[in-house]
């Protein structure tokens, strides 16, 4: 499913649960250490999404390598590779690309259901709510979850790229019914590479009860 949101040159792999081949990969020692003491459910999820990442890396022609979460939560990918992983109930996925073509990428998967009200109030800003009312019919889909997922994909693209943490309010996103969304980059005192003034365009889709989003930053865009 996630491959449908990604352009040529980006390799992806996915799994629907933890019982398939991806869930039976051998973890590197550093990966095992990173999840020592976690619950069995978290261990299965961690293993399967890394199995997806190994498959995606193989499609790119890259050798498997330990993918250990760093201080910002994202793993360090092999040299010359950018990538992203995601998981939610019943779904795991990874996507990778050559760093010569893409500066960064982010993917996210979410259940197709509304956010809890307290979370939605923190994630979706007033401008975003107005856009959603203007662009989507009432009840068409859980739009607050779509905004959440788009911001997750944006965070996964920007945070490892810039080496900084961001919050949900640092990004402004406008989803469109055509399966795209606009991301306005965060305002920061950091010196950002030149990005398109009108923002970056990501993609979204809904399939089999899963909401999927992706954002790629091409080298030619910076």
Detailed description of the structure:
With 222 residues, the protein is α+β, with helices and mostly antiparallel strands. The protein has two domains: 2-102, Ribosomal Protein L22, Chain A, CATH 3.90.470.20; 108-221, Ribosomal Protein L22, Chain A (Alpha-Beta Complex). 29% of the residues lie in helices and 26% in strands. The chain has helices at residues 29-34, 40-60, 117-123, 126-135, 143-162, and strands spanning 11-15, 81-88, 91-98, 102-111, 172-175, 180-184, 200-207, 210-218. The strands form two sheets. Strands 4-8-7-6-5 form a five-stranded antiparallel beta sheet. Strands 1-3-2 form a three-stranded antiparallel beta sheet. A hairpin with a 4-residue loop joins strand 5 and strand 6 (180-184). The radius of gyration is 17 Å and the shape is globular. It starts with 10 loop residues before the first strand and ends with a strand. The mean pLDDT is 93.
CATH topology category name of the largest domain = Ribosomal Protein L22, Chain A
Coarse shape: globular
Largest sheet report: 5 strands, antiparallel
Number of strands: 8
Under the CATH scheme, the architecture of the largest domain is Alpha-Beta Complex
Write down the CATH class of the largest domain: Alpha Beta
Any idea what the radius of gyration is? 17 Å
- Overall mean pLDDT score? 93
Given as residue ranges, the uncertain stretches (5+ residues, pLDDT < 50) are none
How do the helices and strands follow one another from N- to C-terminus?
EHHEEEHHHEEEE
Helix vs. strand class: alpha+beta
What is the helix content?
Answer: 25-40%
> N- to C-terminal separation?
28 Å
Residue fraction in strands? 25-35%
Put simply, the count of helices is: 5
Q: How many domain units?
A: 2
Oligomer: single chain
How is the largest sheet built, in terms of strand order?
4-8-7-6-5
